[in-house]
Amino acid sequence: MKISELITGLALLTGLAANPVVAAADYYTEPPLYHSRPDPKKERHFGDVGVTGLKARIYPGVVLKVEETVPGTPADGKFAKGDVITGVNGVALQGRNPFVVLGEALTAAEAKDGKLVFELEGKKPVTVVIPVLGAYRATWPLDCPKSQAIIKGAAEYYRQTLEYAGESHSDRDRERHGIGGALACLFLLSTGDDQYLPRVKSYFDELGRNIKGIGDNTWANGYNGIACAEYYLRTGDKSVLPVLQYYCDDARDRQFYGIGWGHWGRQINPGYVSGGLMNPAGAQVATTLLLAKECGVNVDDRTMLGALQYFYRFAGRGSVAYGDHRGEGGLGSNGKDGMVAALMQVATGAQGETRVYRQARNYFALSMLDSFPALVTGHGDEGRGDAIWRSITSAYLRDIKPEAYRATMDELKWWYDLSRRPSGALGVATAQRFDDEGSGAGLAIAYTAPLRTLRITGAARSKFAKEFTVPANPWGRPADLAFLSTESDAKEPVYQLARKLGDAYSAEPNYAGMSAAELARIARHRNYMIRAQAAKALMHTGAFGVLEKMMADPDPRVRRAACDGLTDYRYWFAVGKKPIRPEDVSPKMVQALRGMLVDPNEAIYVVDGALMALSCATPAAVAECVPDILPWTTHEEWWVRQSAFRALATAAQAEGVAAKVLPVLAEMLRREQRPTARETMNGLLARLAPTLKMNREIVAAFQRAVAETEIQPGPRAGEGGYYVQEAAVAGLKSDSGGALRIAEAVQVRLPKLETRYIINVVDALVAARETLAAEAREQVTEQLYGSYRRELIQRMNAGETPLDTIVTLTQLKHPEAGWREVGRPAGAERVWRFTSFEPQGADVMHPREGKRFRDVTLPAGLASWYLPEFDAGQWNSGKAPIGKGVFTARRGKKSAIENQSTWGDGEFLLARTTFELDAVDCDYYRLGVLAKQGFHIYLNGQKIHTYIWWNDNPEYRKIGLGADAVKQLKTGTNVLAVYANAGYVDGEQVGQLDVRLEGLKKAELLKEE
User: Fold this and answer.
1) Quick one: which of 167, 383, 393, 498 could link to 376 by a disulfide (CB 3.0–4.6 Å)?
2) Could you give the CA distance from residue 512 to residue 502 in angstroms, rounded to a whole number?
3) What is the model's pLDDT at position 18?
């Protein structure tokens, strides 16, 4: 019996009632399984109903409505837009997951007579007949005629998508060479059919004609790099190697922290998420490097091995992280576990001992199978990664874990069939943003992966391959290999245990009815998250004695689980919000934790947990352990350093210990080169100031970090510069009285700091300055007005424009300096002429769409509405802001700005006003624009700015004007015209508009004393 059938049966036994437009628990008559199940309170995308050609959308109440039918398909012309589908083939949708119901109906119909009878609300049933392919065989996709037919149809579709229709290389569509193009190549290669090789070759030939134009998009380069390497290993065609070499060189030049990559570009942003890395993109770059090494391309070993170690260490320690943080603790991984499983698969092809990579591959692949209820969910690419890499890597376990592989594949038949399209292509069923044919090429590989025709799916070593080596054990001690085990005697599926115990992202679970004995048994599960959650439950229910016993268990996984229980482990965020109380950490627990620290054979990951757990004990107890903690302060793994810092920060609070420990903490902070660890250290050290009453010493620690943190040359300068900024800001938070010392320390580093970091430090110093006594405030003022202002003025003269910060610094001594509104009358007094209108025909957009700005056909007679000579005398008139509804901020951060004139009934607004200038004598001009959505702005008949997105806060956003725009200003009368649109909030139109002009004279910024 299938899992979904069992759940449905249980639901029928419970007799739950259904009720539309209510909470999921009240609507559904079946227990939850898939995370993508529609929320009854929300509208969402449904998309294609498999190969029928019918497209639908889900509305509140889980009402499924027809959107359209595709011409030439089985459903063509059989439905009207807005038809409500209530059931199919005798199965009602009410109370059920419509994705699963329709997917299962498609699978059943293809196996029988092809008939799908759709029940429609208030109408007669509609029958759609789809081609009969037969049932999936028990061995599918191997030895399965239906699977073979799907492969053939998909291959023909994707072969056509790789045909280049452009007239020159320069006009190629870059999107065609993104993820979708790469996946199409991989799928065609995975069929093992040589007839598709010319298409793949032409794809890379096209890229090869302008290698420098390939760019530095990590997402595209990673996927394309894998496809390029796979093509070479299949064919030995050396013509593609320059393209592959580019990907490797680009990876070397753009790698950050020696481990990973961001979204794109060559500038790191350490403040983005955790370190600015984007592992859902970077994992494919790492795989490209290993494959390229096998191709014989020149690969920088330091780049490749740094990434390999970085990703390997997540195996068995939480799902692969989003950025440079600890492993995550959700059921799914957005496909990252599958991505790294493929990386490990390639590593198994190295010469020498590769057992650990095989184990890691199996762990990651089993994680993908276990997490099937989290299908197509996640952040980064909104679940697309899960769909792609679930399909590519699940087959790793076909022979190793045949029952798990077969059960999951059979459970997901509905999803694969719902994802298929009449064209032969696949989309991504249940996806909100990436339900497209390009992404769907990844799903198609599920049908070919067991053929093992690609290196990433287990193909034998190519005759064109070169030998390469990788470390026999890239991370940890021999005891750490226990975390890679996939063996378990657990009876319950992972997803069921996760529902009972919760995960990193769920509300605190209810442990009622779960005994300590049951939780202790679950804490031995093969899945890391399940072990941690069970141990946390033991702690929260007061089963401290059980945790004590677990700390002495011979299995390192159980010992780590005990530590996780004590810390209320939060995965990404390390120590949780409700760790064990210090007084509940028994002497026996402390003794066990100390034993872990000094045991030379203990797993490194257990040591990491032990250090964190120690930080939860009393300061006096931790102080006794300081000699055992100190050796871990310089460990190569930042997880361990972060935990050691936590433990020492606790010890520092014991009487007489701070003076001994603080220099160690200061040195750790100065030396730390990983952003998440550094963030923890900054925060803990700043929070120690009021406790230890050692403000001067703590500020000195931050001062030293500012002065001595390494700032590397080149693209990686952003790493060290960020650390300097963060140390300065943390020092000011610990004690604003140390502002002068911090200011002096940063001043020395100014030449090496990027402008963005200087601006942030200035903001913090200006705020701290307000808290100082008069003498100290004056000293800080002199530093800011002198060195900092001078540095930024030099950068302004060199072409940068940190104008607002220079204005802030200038105003420290010249409050009158700065931006001024220009033009008469003042903006608040200007009278606008305006009219609104509704778009017609093809320009109409559904209210559900958030990004609404677009060019639409104007009403008759308004083609020249923005020209100075246009007569708008018949339009409405009034002062700005012009608006409708109430434009409020998200999360209430900013108050609404009151409308002065009513927008009108239309979605779009045309507005004009005039102002007088006596002179155009400012050196800089900018607009202040208040708008809910996008806009075009015209000055004297010339377009000077366009914004196509939306705004979440009611504020006048500042937009600097370039030289071409400023040229449009003139003395006398100027005409300002704006084309804008409203958005929808809770079904109602909300719009607001005002535009003002400001000017700044450079002489004011250059004022001396």
Assistant:
1) 383
2) 13
3) 38
